[in-house]
User: Which sequence fits this backbone?
């Protein structure tokens, strides 16, 4: 290669090179349609049946809208779970897997920015998971007959993308931390699955934590859970897609949630950059973090 | 003379994160503590040279390569690659180097051979057009053209290592680090790799290769100059021919005998400079290689063997090989 390298061109190429694995490679085996697209419907179905059971035999004005909203909440939660699982297993754990595969050393030796590498992983992950999430969403709409009431399409798009940037920024930060902690990535990711399903309200509106009978700790859990960008992102998406049915479950208004998500995105990306630098420095000093089986 | 690599008093000591625990353990059984992987290494590798680093496992070869590849910081001393300091100027070094290690499992199984190499080329900013043309050329050269669209996970270990070599060359590096590149490969795959590397350096005068190996024949056949490294120290640097010439005044004898009860007495025989002992697993004979300063010592060796009740199966005087040089310098054979 020439020794005069344009850093922008280098890092764009590097990001695209790493994203390619997920954009093209990961979709090469059609089994994902069943495992990642259809199978998540089972988890969604369980909650849908519970909600439908509550409403069975109840009639009156607004009942069908309320049930539609609750089913829609669960379907959206199932879509967001796809992104959260991708962040855990394919972003946060990824540098660990790369180390075990023998790639990390080659990445660390290459002239590209390490953020370009993680950025490529994130872009690839967002694309790959969006395709899977779309299959789940469409299948959910078809199977459960959900009707959306889209009020502000631009705000919806803004919330969706800011949520993903914040979420994958968090994954990028975790990627270095997983290596620094030196724990099996499998255990770390497992630890962050079920508790986050609860505190982020993947199967119910997070505003439900604010019910008086739960007490003050319910609000504390909702605020704590808001550190995970999926929490506020999901709540905002639900408000935007079911505007008439979310007042009683509203946690914060959409604009506030979007602002917080923007702050989270910036903070996580800065922290990701810093932890990555710290990790690289430590790896060079200790000589064991980037090598296989060490 | 332009230097591709230069090190001065380069030292690398590995210490555990849990220093206190280690120190305590060390004080209890004396087995643990800081490990000095490189101990004041001074090297100069000229641009355009195929330089070999020959040493046993744990000698410090890979540590040296990792420091030069900016993956590891030295504890003390100086290391420069293409004139840049590895501790301060990692970026310009990284644009000029590449590395291939033996037994590498890098890449992604779902990508094809071509895609995998292309992906790595992107991390060096090579344009896709240039990269793809170069990849095709190299795939032909390394006999991998038929496998260009095969998924990486379907490749054999030999094919995979050839792919790794293509990955190393596709960025057209000024300096290429090859860390045991033919490890575990069959004769044909090894030959293809050796021939290409040798030819690459020969036809590109500005290209430098630092090769680590513990295959004597590979080092002898390929390298312009060789450094013999053991316990983190460079013990000798010269061309393979000059290294062998050092032993011209010495005599090499190879002897096969029934297993000896005591080999320590052989070292004390006047005229014996050094010797190595190899016991093949399951074999009932011991193979001894003697480097003799005085050829007359051979009669004392024979007497000692007979005195121990052992039978001599084979005895031959031979021309010194690189292995004999290694035994002469290090005091043991390279396993």
Assistant:
């Amino acid at each position: 290669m020439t020794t005069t390298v344009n850093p922008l061109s280098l890092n764009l190429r590097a990001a695209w090179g790493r994203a390619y694995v997920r954009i093209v490679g990961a979709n090469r085996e059609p089994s994902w349609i069943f495992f990642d697209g259809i199978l998540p419907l089972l988890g969604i179905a369980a909650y849908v049946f519970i909600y439908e059971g509550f409403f069975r035999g109840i009639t009156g004005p607004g009942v069908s809208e309320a049930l539609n909203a609750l089913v829609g909440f669960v379907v959206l939660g199932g879509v967001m779970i796809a992104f959260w699982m991708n962040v855990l297993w394919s972003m946060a754990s990824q540098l660990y897997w790369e180390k075990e595969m023998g790639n990390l050393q080659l990445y660390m030796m290459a002239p590209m920015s390490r953020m370009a590498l993680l950025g490529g992983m994130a872009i690839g992950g967002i694309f790959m998971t969006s395709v899977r999430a779309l299959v789940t969403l469409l299948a959910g709409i078809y199977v459960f007959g959900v009707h959306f009431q889209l009020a502000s399409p631009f705000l919806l798009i803004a919330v969706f993308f800011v949520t993903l940037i914040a979420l994958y920024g968090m994954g990028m930060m975790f990627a270095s931390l997983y290596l620094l902690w030196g724990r099996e990535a499998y255990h770390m990711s497992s630890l962050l699955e079920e508790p986050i399903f609860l505190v982020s309200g993947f199967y119910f509106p997070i505003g439900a934590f604010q019910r008086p009978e739960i007490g003050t700790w319910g609000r504390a859990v909702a605020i704590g859970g808001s550190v995970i960008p999926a929490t506020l992102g999901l709540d905002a998406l639900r408000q935007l897609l079911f505007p008439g049915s979310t007042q009683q479950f509203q946690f914060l208004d959409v604009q506030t949630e979007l602002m917080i998500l923007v702050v989270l995105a910036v903070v996580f990306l800065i922290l990701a950059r810093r932890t990555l630098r710290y990790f690289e420095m430590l790896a060079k000093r200790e000589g064991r973090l980037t090598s296989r089986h060490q | 003379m332009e230097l591709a690599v230069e090190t001065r008093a380069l030292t690398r000591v590995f210490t555990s994160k849990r220093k206190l625990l280690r120190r305590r353990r060390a004080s209890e059984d004396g087995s643990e503590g800081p490990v000095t992987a490189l101990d004041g290494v001074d090297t100069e590798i000229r641009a355009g040279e195929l330089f070999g680093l020959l040493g046993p496992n744990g000698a410090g070869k890979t540590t040296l390569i990792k420091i030069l590849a900016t993956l590891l910081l030295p504890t003390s001393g100086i290391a420069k690659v293409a004139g840049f300091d590895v501790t301060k100027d990692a970026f310009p070094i990284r644009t000029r180097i590449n590395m291939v290690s033996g037994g590498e499992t890098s890449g992604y199984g779902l990508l094809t051979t071509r895609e995998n190499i292309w992906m790595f080329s992107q991390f060096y900013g090579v344009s896709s057009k240039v990269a793809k043309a170069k990849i095709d050329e190299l795939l032909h050269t390394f006999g991998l053209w038929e496998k260009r669209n095969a998924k990486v996970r379907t490749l054999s270990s030999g094919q995979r290592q050839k792919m790794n070599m293509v990955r190393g060359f596709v960025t057209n590096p000024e300096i290429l680090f090859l860390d045991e590149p033919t490890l575990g490969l069959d004769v044909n795959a090894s030959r293809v790799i050796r021939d290409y590397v040798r030819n690459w350096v020969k036809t590109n005068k500005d290209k430098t290769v630092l090769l680590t190996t513990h295959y004597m024949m590979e080092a002898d056949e390929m390298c312009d100059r060789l450094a013999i490294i053991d316990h983190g120290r460079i013990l000798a640097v010269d061309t393979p021919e000059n290294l062998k010439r050092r032993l011209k005044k010495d005599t090499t004898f190879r002897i096969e005998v029934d297993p000896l009860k005591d080999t320590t007495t052989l070292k004390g025989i006047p005229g014996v400079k050094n010797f190595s002992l190899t016991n093949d697993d399951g074999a009932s004979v011991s193979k001894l290689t003697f480097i003799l300063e005085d050829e007359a010592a051979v009669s004392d060796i024979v007497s000692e063997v007979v005195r121990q009740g052992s039978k001599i199966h084979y005895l031959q005087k031979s021309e010194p090989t690189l292995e004999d040089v290694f035994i002469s310098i290090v005091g043991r054979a390279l396993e």
Observations:
- The CA atoms of residues 187 and 270 of chain B lie 41 Å apart.
- Chain B has a mean pLDDT of 89.
